[in-house]
Amino acid sequence: MEALIGKIEKAKPFFEKVSRNKYLKAIRDGFMSAMPVVLFSSIFMLIAYVPNIFNYYWPKEIEAMILKPYNYSMGLLAVLVAGTTAKNLCDSFNRDMPVNRQINNISTLMAGIVGFLVVGVDSIKGGFASGYMGSKGLLTAFLVAFFVCNVYRFCVKRNITIHMPEEVPPNISQTFADVIPFAISILLLALFDIAFRNAAGMCFAQAVIEFFQPLFTAADGYVGLAIIYGAMSLFWFVGIQGPSIVEPAVSAIYYVNIANNLELFQAGKHAANILTPGCQQFVATLGGTGATLVVTLMFAFMAKSKELKAVGKASSIPVLFGVNEPILFGAPLILNPIFFIPFILAPILNVWIFKLFVDVLKMNSFMYILPWTTPAPLGIVLGCGITILSILFAVLVLVVDFVVYYPFFKVYDREKCAEEAEKEGLIEEEKEEAAVEVSSDVVNEKRVLVLCAGGGTSGLLANALAKGAKEKGISIVTAAGSYGAHYDMLKDYDLVVLAPQVANYYQDLKKDTDRLGIKCVACEGKKYIELTRNPQKALEFVFSILDGEE
Question: For all residues of the chain together, what is the average pLDDT?
Fold first, then answer.
């Protein structure tokens, strides 16, 4: 087992490089920017159709009123994502561009939206057909965003622009500077659209969906599900944020499938598509990547080891809401040979059982999008339509995860108990680490931004810093955010801290912070978790960075 893990760990630099790929990051960050739209619109879908489960149906006029916010938000998802993906890719390109020759990210955003409408939407009398403006057009949105940004980069690098006299104000000059790359992008896409429609007899968005449909079907099978969620866990096991690599490849499938599931349910049919956001958030990652909810509760209530019991109790609440970094780094589970098998196996078994329930027992798959912080058992029941089968499934996967993790938990618990007994037998007194005197002159009025993948883990440290500052009577502003949605926030902070799961983005972040003259630091593994539990140490850590000691 040690040899296998060693081989996997050797491949870590390669996978880290993949996770930092500009295009994958743009897809992920583009989605992150659009997530408020997704969550907002889903509220109205729940209001409209959850009562159907209890045989109550809204009058058609009321239903139409409820669904209007959904149709005008989620129904435009591809349009919005084309813009947000283009903007985020543009931001990544700008890191490698001279400071005096930056691409206008707002212009690329608008070009992404217009370009998508050109190639992905059919014209009808009086307007546009909406068929591919929502989730079905996401793949096209990504491709358009990539094309537009590369056209802009080509033009800006070669200074292909309209040059205005020096007397013209910079804001006016910038407007004219963006005309040529915008025009080239849209004209080329328009010509492509004409040629493609004449050749294929359909719009590009429709053709893309039909081309990838076999892939969608294969991904929904047992092998495809095992590869997707097994890979996600495997990457996380070696310390790489798994979804950052896997999600961009399947995100379009997710939202196409959940839209199809809802349509099937509304038509009185079986919602049978497995691969959805809910399947990942509440089934495969029950409590977080590795399906760690059960093992966390084992640590808290069944462990004989004092250390594991303390880790379990401290991690239980965050893990219940899908934030499992405290257990991943605190136990640790990451790179722990004892937990390699259950960490990979439990998510795969969970999604396989889910597929059995959907395919064989005819339970509806996920039809609604819920916040990822919804406790997983509740997320399963709500997302699948509040049925007896969904409740039974939620109970069953908890039992299965318990059975999978239990023997490995017992081995680790015995190992930790033996270590603790050995330590207690030592006569030597351990010297406590001397406390660092935090200077209020250095820390006072400073603003600290903590970034993680989804905004959950970063909140733990941000809260600890705020608590430590309050105890010391120091005025400090702390905030938590998601990496990828942070670009426009950086200028407002003095220090940016990267949580462990996004630590591999440190070099990219440093390019941004160096330009702004602010500091940044990546915090690894167990140290981060210790800081979240000790407000004083968290404050000392921030002070050491701001004071220039690290």
Answer: 87
Domain 440-546 listed as CATH 2.30.30.40 = no
DSSP H or E stretch at residue 212: helix 204-219
Angle, alpha carbons 100-105-111 (nearest 5°) = 130
Residue 488 and residue 106: Cα distance in Å, rounded?
12
CA 476 from chain centre, in angstroms, equals 28
d(CA 246, CA 227) in angstroms, rounded, equals 10
Whether 452 is a known active-site residue: answer yes
On whether the pTM is more than 0.70, the answer is yes
Nearest to 507 by CA among 184, 100, 95: 95
β partners of residue 124? 127
Terminal CA-CA length for the chain: 36
pLDDT at 429 > cutoff 60: no
Catalytic residue among 90, 155, 203, 452: 452
Q: What is the pLDDT of residues 110-164, one digit of tens each?
A: 999 999 999 999 888 878 888 899 888 999 999 999 999 999 999 998 888 777 6
> Domain coordinates of the chain in residue numbers?
2-211, 226-425, 440-546
CA pair distance 443, 152, nearest whole angstrom: 41
